[in-house]
Design brief:
2 copies of one chain form a homodimer.
Chain A (H helix, E strand, L loop, with lengths): L1 H5 L3 H19 L7 H8 L3 H9 L13 H11 L6 E6 L3 H8 L1 H5 L2 E7 L9 E2 L2 E4 L4 H7 L4 E4 L3 H14 L3 E4 L12 E4 L2 H14 L6 H6 L1
Parallel strand pairs in A: 1-2, 1-5, 2-4, 5-6, 6-7
Antiparallel strand pairs in A: 3-4
Helix pairs in contact in A: 2-5, 3-4, 8-9
Chain lengths: ~220, ~220
């Protein structure tokens, strides 16, 4: 299974996240089984696509029955790497950084924010959500001590590349970037960027085009 | 040109946003021309893809010269709908909402936040970034008075669907949703969702897979 998972595209992984979210709802609602048709309808993707996606996970569908939500949840969490804890650091505790710190979803999914940093001297030593804001000079040591592999960048655009460089040098393997700049990172480090302006530009473009409402399947694409 | 623009995919529009950002940097740097190869290299997409993308915009490439950055910027801004102003409302002025209000990028790109709303009585009447926080009961009237077509949702998940319903009813045509839930919206309204947990899940998944660093082309896809 890990073999086929290794060949999954980013788009498939995005749909897996959506399947997982919906299946967790079904487990909470104590649904016994779910069909690929019902899954597809709930998430706005075709039944055939659901079948193709879930086939990557092994033989989990039962003819005439469908899928067992609890079983799918377990497998999806493992494939997505959510059955483990990911120690994560955050750089930048402005409004966006604070919003991320307070965001419950991260912790629930195994993303544990273990250290926060800021360049602003006045903020150093303050506690936010139980974490003491540290100077950037402490970043490398904290990454090493706490075996951190993920870093979140929530600083202004002009500071982002330097922060990314520091993360890479410290051994961070994945960066989630909210700064509205194109970051240059070396091979072997994964970058996911969330550019809020681009999201809004996309929306304006689609509205201008008069495109119809999109299902949740498209939510992953955004 | 508007005919071909109308057939553009969301992915193409995403790359247009990235081309635009890079070309604006070139204009600022007073670069006279740029080749499709240089554009592709800067954004991590193939030269052939750049040519295909820009062909949608009309005959803008000059053999042996390349493209004129200023000319491309003008056309891209028009195609993306950024040559006009988009009155936008925001619902939810928690940390994330405040971060969005303070975010300079929106205003620079023509997204003008004209009204903000919150369900919390204690916040009503407060001014944030020059805007008075209004109760949700005022939403429909403000949308009408200010001819608002875009709405941003930055409320907790459990409140998001009701806010979306209110926006749709008021005539909003495009919704940018930050709440971590799958929203149901009717046809004719465009939805772009930014799910912060899903972005982090993607990152963890890619790091776990050991995928190499991604160019800015992938940044749009995330």
């Amino acid at each position: 299974m890990s073999m086929s998972a290794a060949r999954l595209s980013r788009a498939t992984a995005g749909r897996f996240s959506l399947y997982l979210r919906y299946l967790e709802e079904l487990v909470q609602a104590e649904a016994a089984t779910v069909s690929s048709g019902a899954l597809g309808q709930a998430l706005g993707v075709s039944e055939a696509q659901v079948r193709r996606d879930l086939a990557h996970l092994g033989h989990l569908g039962y003819p005439g029955i469908g899928y067992y939500p609890g079983e799918l949840v377990t497998v999806l969490r493992r494939v997505l790497g959510l059955d483990r804890s990911w120690p994560t650091i955050l750089v930048g505790v402005g409004n966006l950084g604070r919003a991320l710190l307070r965001y419950q979803g991260f912790r629930q999914k195994g993303f544990q924010l273990v250290a926060v940093f800021d360049a602003e001297p006045n903020l150093i030593g303050h506690r936010i959500e139980g974490l003491e804001v540290q100077p950037l000079s402490r970043l490398a040591q904290e990454v090493k001590d706490r075996q951190v592999s993920l870093g979140v960048i929530a600083v202004p655009g002009e500071a982002a590349q330097e922060v990314a460089n520091g993360m890479v040098k410290a051994g961070i393997r994945g960066i989630l970037n909210f700064a509205p700049v194109l970051l240059r990172i070396p091979e072997g480090v994964t970058l996911v960027s969330v550019d809020l302006t681009i999201q809004l530009e996309q929306l304006a473009f689609l509205v201008q085009q008069g495109q119809a409402g999109t299902g949740p399947g498209d939510q992953a694409a955004s």
